[in-house]
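Continuing the batch. This is chain 6 of the set; chains 1 through 5 are on the previous pages. Same settings as before, nothing changed between runs. Recording input and output for traceability.
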Amino acid sequence: MIIDNKSLLLLSKNAPRWIAERRESAAKSFFNAPMPSEREEAWRYTTLGNMEIKSSSDALLKVSGKCATPMSAETEKLIPASAGEDKFDFFNNAFWTSGYSVVVPDNMDAGVIEARIGAGITRSVVVLGKNAKAEIVEYISGGSGVTSNFLYVVTGENAHASVYSVSDLASGVRDFSYKRAFLNSNSSVTWNVAQFGSALSRIKVDNHFNGEGSSSRVTGLFGASGLQHMDLTTNAFHNVPNTSCTMNIKGALKDSASHVYRGLIKIEKAAKNTSSYLSDHALALSKNASANSIPSLMIDNNDVKCGHSASVGNVDEEKLLYIMSRGLDRKSAENLIVEGFFSHMIASVPSEKMRSEFSRIVRERILC
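Output for chain 6:
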């Protein structure tokens, strides 16, 4: 798809008037907004340079499972307004071509909903009623040009969602994909995100804690080689008392690949008894690989538990030599250390099937 006003008119054709007006407004903001710059804190270490957004592949989407339907005007209404819009928010709002929606009624367990997305521009929403449950599995692959896959999760009281998102895009893709959860009382969202493919990948995971007793766990795995650049952000916005969040990120870099992780915990003045923690650990497998970690804590209440940890390092040479002394060559010994580095994180993934999938990607992308 060509990103221009002609494409916008085709997307708006036969759509409800309010959708067409929303697309038009977003497109105007998108075309007028400057490309993000490294001078902006949110984009430090991610260079877009003279990148132009001219085209994207058409998103091929196949979704299966209870309560799953194609994205429509009615389900578009279920997406909450969120702060922090940037050029790529406007891009997705204006030019999305497809997506899926999952609306689970009260007291229902929808089981596993699987979405296979041939990367393009998609916009999807999951809404869980009171006491509802669902497991969402996304496989995002292929693509060309600039892609953008947005997912919104909205939970009712005591609802629980588990989301698995595997991003294994084609080598030339530049991907800007955001995931946002809005949590109500005593509900939870578990994010398990694997970030591996594309030339440039920027994934952002936001959690908005709007109901007491709500919680989230974010597990992020990344791997890059060649000249790939990965940008991963996880945010926890604690707006009310008695909420909790844990964010754990791990990844490895080969060749001249680079990565930046940004983690934010924001605790509002009213949000007492918050418990929130983030950690980020990167392993550089070559002297030219680079990683940056930028944790941030914004705390306006003293009655909270909050912390972070971060590390960027190389393979321990002593460990490597010890394993090689047991008969392994250097590459096999290094692979064994890298597998061990990822193993604890992968073991924490609840789904056995997805643990196998994450292990497969690590072997193919990092250990080969």
